[in-house]
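Morning. Coffee machine broken again, so started the prediction first thing and wrote up yesterday's gels while waiting. Chain of 273 residues, entered below exactly as on the submission form.
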Amino acid sequence: MAEVPAKLEKGGSWVTSRIDIGNDGIVLKDPWNVTVSYRSIVDLQKRGQMITLLVSMPDKTERPYKIASVEKVLTILTKKIIMACNAYRIMAHFMSPAIRGGVLVTDAKWEKGAIAVLKTGIWFVSQDRQISVPLKEVASLELTKRELQKKKLDVIKIDHLEGGEVVTSFILCPLSTLQVLYNFLRDATKDMDMKGSELDQLDAQTAQVAMLIYSGMDTKSIENMLSLPPEELNAIYETLLKLKLVDVVMVRKEVQLTPKGVRYITDALKPPS
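Came back before lunch.
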């Protein structure tokens, strides 16, 4: 068991402490002083130099633990957790990211490792890298084919949003396993599917606006292309927001001059006396 420095959060305060990383679990020292088995961990999220573990407790509740440390420690700890936690996990080859914003990633390559599906994310783990795709950001899943060594092989294609761009990853493994993984991922992301009652709210014009947003058009371009006044486009945006198909990234302001503003302009336009 390796003892390493870390900071642990409890009650909103961070305490400088240490953790023991073992083969079956980790020991979180002061202020927690608990042993967490890897099998009890149902979720892992990483942000910067901090990870958050979600642990299933004996009373069936779930408790989060936040750990901050240097990147080397978090990399070792994350890999151990992903390979042993309570998750759906397979060994496979993957390429992530393969395509970003519709453009092939130049240094993309197939890597051998594990795919693990946790409560909030899909983890790609290889000898050198650990990549997490949040389930809530998964836009589409597809069983398709990809050429590898001049052969067309079955793969899962995963599109997700990252920084406003569509990023594509591929997973390659035997077809029987691939089908099981695909079904599992479809079930894990089923909240992203449009329901029948939601589809009824999408008329042809609203769907067309959604397509233009997907293509990268901004509000002014959509107004000009479809000859829509701002009020009508705003109403369409409200429908898309209600259906959770879009997020607001900027609120455009319409303004008019105050009496002080009018006075400034009229004075500025007067010829010099």
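The CA atoms of residues 75 and 129 lie 9 Å apart. Going to sketch it on the whiteboard this afternoon.
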